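Task card 7
Instruction: Convert sequence to structure tokens.
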Amino acid sequence: MLGRILDALISTLRGKIMSLVNMIKRFTSPVYLQSTVVARVRAFFTNHFTIKPRNKRDYFTVFVWMISKRLVFMLCIIAGVLGLYYITIVNPVMSLKVDGVRTYSYNSVPLRFVSGKVNIRAKSGYIAYTGNVQKGKVTGEGTLRSKNGNLIYEGHFDNNYYNGEGKLYYDTEALRYSGGFVNNIFEGTGTLFRKNGSVEYEGEFLHGQKNGQGILFGSNSKPVYTGRFANDEVVYTDLLDLMTAEISKVYTGASQVYRDDNDFIVTMDDIDALYTVDSSVETLDDAISIDGIYVLKNVFDYQGKKYTSISELKDMLSDIEYEGNSNILLSEAVCVKKINQKRESQFEQISISEEEIYKNVFEVSDFDSDNSLYLYSFSSDGIRYTFFCADKYGRFDFYLVEKE
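Output:
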């Protein structure tokens, strides 16, 4: 008897459940949605968006104007839909949490009032910044990443800029710079790295350039020059105050010596320069002042500006001392040789007869001294600058700095 009652109860419940399931299937079927729901929605909007009123009660009266109530209703709905789209898609007012950190779109309105640790999504949707903000401004410690997730910068921010101590990375995530920043620019004390990870420079920066005391490193991260820099360049005139023994301490990079009966010529390959001394002195270790510094560059840095042509130099260094042809000296022949080994120049290679008597020390027996160069010499602030060209009006390929 009890078994029959249970069977009847189960049969009744099964029938009710199947009826409910069939009803859900019917209401969610594409056919029902298209034929019933869509039709009703269309009828609702057709009925309410029919702007043409039927009688005076369908108008709002404002002064002498009569405005359709249905038109106002339609405009309110459109404004509401657009507003909802804006605050949910374009500029969301809601924040989500990613790894427990509040996450905002970069242009989210609430972000402007937030302080503390947040994530900020870039326009394309990835999390570009994780760190502190103050009233929506990126301020404090944080991390900036690229679209592919690589580090761009980590360190201190202030008012949406890199400010304070931080680390900047190459697009390969190799460290590019570690040190002080002011408004996204290297400033203060820092270390600059090459893409291969070797140290390039360690010292003072100003306006994003090497400025002040610093150490220049070779490709093996070993120091090659210690001294003063300005606008990313070695201050070559500082070397004029040094004796040869002192130069050997500040410059420790790759070097070669060329000598004949008159001169010692010592190259400083890692800073694109060389100097000459009187060869009548037995060794280069004696306290000998140097005659001049040749700079093997076709760009001249002066008072924060860079010059590449003689016409520019004439406008800037108006006090010209000499202009004309001159037979080439051994030091200048070595300059041409070094330049042509590193880059294209206006000069043809000059023949030098040399013999290596020690490692990187060459005895010169002869060179083609009949070659000539065109020179322009200027004086400024007690320094004579001589620029070497292949011909008149040409561009210079190197220059010499001397004390007057």
